Amino acid sequence: MSIIEVKGVRKVFKKPVREPGLIGMFKTLFSFKYTKVEAVRDISFSLNKGEIVGYIGANGAGKSTTIKMMCGILTPTEGKITIDGFEPYNPKERKHVLNKLGVVFGQRTQLWWDLPLIESLVILKEIYDVTDKDYQERYQFLTKVLELDSFINQPVRTLSLGQRMRADLAASLIHNPKILFLDEPTIGLDVLVKDRMIEAIKEINQRYETTIVLTTHNMEDITDLCKRVIILDEGAILYDGPIKSIKTKFGDMRNISFLSKDQVNLEHLRNVLGTYAKIDEVDGYIHLTFDLSMISVNEVLKTILDLYRIEDIKIEENSLESIVKKIYETKQV
Ligand SMILES: Nc1ncnc2c1ncn2[C@@H]1O[C@H](COP(=O)(O)OP(=O)(O)OP(=O)(O)O)[C@@H](O)[C@H]1O
């Protein structure tokens, strides 16, 4: 059953036309001239309970605008959004939506800066009217999966970035929201803390069946967490479906990079493999990119090993990162 419904949503911003210079700045203040920015154009999708979806797109694609409309901070110019049946931006329905949402913005904290983390959690318990029993259960679970114990009594301003992000995630979940919006939840985190964060998000999703909308430019997070991805471009949806299918659509590509003890004659290698593989040389390493439907890894390896004595070799799948880069460039899936 779908918990979020977005139907034919459009958002147009009016921006005052600014004239150059200081006088222009004053004129702008009293001017009635506007241009229109269509941040979101006719988008529709629905999310089921417990789904984790990656909501991605280049800078300015319209991600934040959609999330703000789903949270009720902005009202769509056209179309309709429902969260568990209620419109978040409708003043009469808003109160039914707020306690269903949790939000984490990687760049900003929502915690009280000077208070110890534990105090913030208690305040949130009161604000959201969480029962003692529920609070205890969530507190135990969240302190464990997010490893909050060692800094729970410290004021938030003294926390490291990794600690603060975990604290923010815990705070957004104290009222057990049905939906969690995560905006760049791992930005700036070291590999270990990032992995902990990803694992915690998975555990939270499994335990509480939380529906998660993840906005990020980090494709590793998307691959680690999401089966489904929605790709936005200039306010419209370019792709909505399983990550697996984009990979198939773009060809099942592999990259082989190798360092040879022998001189590699690129012309010769191109003559042997050229129609099947793209061949480049960077810093002494030869990089081959090829489509598995054209030639197998085995065949490519055999060719290389027959021709050269190999010092180092690496085989990689084409990353989601490179696929998405191509989609942003070509604006096509
Ligand atoms: N309040 C506003 N007034 C005018 N234009 C706006 C406003 N908010 C967003 N926009 C414009 O709408 C478009 C979409 O912006 P949005 O912030 O939704 O993009 P985004 O996909 O979240 O980008 P990023 O990855 O950079 O955060 C941009 O062109 C932006 O300049």
Poorly predicted segments: none
Q: Quickly give the CATH architecture of the largest domain.
A: 3-Layer(aba) Sandwich
Would you tell me which CATH topology of the largest domain applies?
Rossmann fold
Work out the helicity level: 25-40%
Order of helices and strands: EHEEHEHEHHHEHEHEEHEHEEHEH
CATH class of the largest domain: Alpha Beta
Task: Please tell me about this protein's structure.
A hairpin with a 2-residue loop joins strand 11 (277-282) and strand 12. The chain folds into 2 domains: 49-247, P-loop containing nucleotide triphosphate hydrolases (Rossmann fold, 3-Layer(aba) Sandwich), CATH 3.40.50; 251-317, YebC, transcriptional regulation domain (Alpha-Beta Plaits, 2-Layer Sandwich). The protein has 12 helices and 13 strands. With 333 residues, the protein is an alpha/beta fold. Adenosine-5'-triphosphate (ATP) binds next to strand 1, strand 2 and helix 2.
